[in-house]
């Protein structure tokens, strides 16, 4: 009987504790803590980052994480910019780059090159379809297309990236594919930093140890910082809208799409770099208190 009474009192106490407890939501946490959580949700993949931060918003993160004193926070600004660039990238791809270039391998070659700049904004199945398109081209255009996306190989999933790299090495090894060897060589040079150890070993056997050492010593090119990212993004959005219904042509792809996707890639990289710099600055400021 005493044991039963004790159990009853314990259950009643637990029930009362539950009724009196203050619900704890993400919105109840300090802004600094939620911002630290958000920092760990920023990845090199803009699609993944958009999903992560979007989820953070849906679970009611404090509004001060996104805006403070009527102004966007650094995180809020990055979230908006990333979403704007993602919409522009997918709108441009679907309108100007997804449809084959009316039987022209050269149009398709530059379409795939333009798509390569924004591959990290595209769904995984679209990236795979893009690689399939490249590998369906004739050998010369394959080599040209792989060279044009070589610096963007890191935007592809591992298997798709390896398919492109391995094909470039095959074209580099093939002695009788006229016109493809030079572009394949350039592709290997431009994308060398994305090759794994086995691929580098294969390249070393083909090109020789001296040239391989030179490739390993090539520094990554630095881009000139854009002074006004929002103005650049507005210009990108306007350019994409202006060409949504334009018929596919070599001039459209090379004169518009290739440059616009390159701008999207550059602005995306800088937006993420600026955000990381702001986080580091905040950490140094907090450490100095």
Please explain how this structure is put together.
By secondary structure, this protein is mainly α. It has a domain at 81-273. The chain is built from 13 helices and two strands. The chain has helices spanning 2-20, 31-39, 46-58, 74-97, 105-117, 124-135, 139-149, 158-173, 180-190, 197-207, 209-216, 229-242, 250-287, and strands spanning 67-68, 71-72. It has a two-stranded antiparallel ribbon with strand order 1-2. A hairpin with a 2-residue loop joins strand 1 (67-68) and strand 2 (71-72). Helix 5 packs antiparallel against helix 6 (124-135). It is globular and about 65 Å long. The N and C termini lie far apart (59 Å). The model is unreliable at 1-23 (pLDDT under 50). Keywords: Plasmid. Residues 1-23 are annotated as: Disordered.
Keywords:
13 helices, mainly alpha, globular, disordered N terminus, about 290 residues, about 70% helix, two-stranded antiparallel ribbon, about 0% strand, plasmid, 2 strands
């Amino acid at each position: 009987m005493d044991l039963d009474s004790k159990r009853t009192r314990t259950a009643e106490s637990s029930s009362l504790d539950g009724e009196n407890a203050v619900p704890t939501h993400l919105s109840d946490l300090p802004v600094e803590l939620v911002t630290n959580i958000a920092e760990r949700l920023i990845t090199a993949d803009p699609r993944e980052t958009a999903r992560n931060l979007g989820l953070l918003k849906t679970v009611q993160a404090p509004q001060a994480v996104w805006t403070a004193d009527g102004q966007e926070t650094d995180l809020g600004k990055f979230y908006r910019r990333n979403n704007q660039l993602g919409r522009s990238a997918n709108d441009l791809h679907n309108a100007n780059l997804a449809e084959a270039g009316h039987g022209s391998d050269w149009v398709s070659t530059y379409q795939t090159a333009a798509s390569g700049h924004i591959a990290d904004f595209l769904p995984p199945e679209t990236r795979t379809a893009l690689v399939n398109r490249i590998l369906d081209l004739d050998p010369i255009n394959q080599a040209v297309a792989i060279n044009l996306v070589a610096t963007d190989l890191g935007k592809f999933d591992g298997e798709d990236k390896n398919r492109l790299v391995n094909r470039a090495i095959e074209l580099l090894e093939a002695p009788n594919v006229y016109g493809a060897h030079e572009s394949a060589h350039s592709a290997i040079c431009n994308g060398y930093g994305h090759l794994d150890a086995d691929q580098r070993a294969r390249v070393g056997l083909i090109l020789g140890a001296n040239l391989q050492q030179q490739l390993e010593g090539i520094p990554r090119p630095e881009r000139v910082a854009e002074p006004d990212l929002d103005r650049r993004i507005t210009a990108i959005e306007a350019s994409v809208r202006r060409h949504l219904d334009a018929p596919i042509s070599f001039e459209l792809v090379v004169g518009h799409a290739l440059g616009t996707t390159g701008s999207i890639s550059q602005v995306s990289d800088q937006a993420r770099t600026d955000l990381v710099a702001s986080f580091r600055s905040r950490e140094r400021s907090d450490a100095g208190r």
